[in-house]
Amino acid sequence: MKLLLCLTLLSVAAATDIQSFRVSNRLIASGLLLGIFSQILEYGMRGIGVFLLNVSIPVILLYLLFLIRALGAGDIKLFSMVGGIWGLQVLCTTIAVSFLVAAVLSFCKVLYHRNLIFRLRVFREYMAQTLSEGKLLKYPQDSQGNQHLIHFSISILIGYAVAMEVAY
């Protein structure tokens, strides 16, 4: 049952992300409530601690990517939702597969827009500036609009589906 509910929440998140480049906090809250109830049912009151640990891990692991604007807060919250509902094994598999899927989607997107060399140049300049200044900088927004952005929630949805296939 929670497999289908989580899949539904992630599907709705991906659909709304495609429309508005945002993920609803109400949707995330629904998933987190599902997660805390699932963990309490499985572990009793100890499930609250399990839940808190599982939702904290994505925040800790991915915070730097958020700071440089390489990943949105909604994406991190979606990972936290998955971790809260399922636990570390599904969470880690979802994260790993999601980043692989995002890499493939990004590569396809730059090939489609024929701007691979330009994007590599932007990345090289970002890295050089970050290293020369010795501090973490925000990744540059450029004049190409949203051509360089992907909807990471789609990658999370696919990553979750693969994680479920591996787990079950």
Task: Tell me the radius of gyration.
Answer: 17 Å
- The helix content is over 70%
Number of extended strands: 0
Find the structural class using helix and strand composition. Answer: mainly alpha
Query: Helix and strand succession?
Result: HHHHHHH
Give the CA-CA distance, first to last residue: 13 Å
Mean pLDDT across all amino acids? 92
Unreliable runs, pLDDT <50, ≥5 residues?
A: none
**Main sheet summary:** none
Number of helices: 7
Q: What amount of the residues lies in strands? A: under 5%
Envelope shape: globular
Folded structure, characterized:
By secondary structure, the protein is an all-alpha fold. Helix content is 80%, strand content 0%. It has helices at residues 2-20, 25-43, 46-67, 73-86, 88-113, 116-133, 152-167. The chain is globular, with a radius of gyration of 17 Å. The mean pLDDT is 92.
Topology:
Layout: H1 2-20, H2 25-43, H3 46-67, H4 73-86, H5 88-113, H6 116-133, H7 152-167
Helix pairs in contact: 1-2, 1-4, 1-7, 2-3, 2-4, 3-4, 4-5, 4-7, 5-7
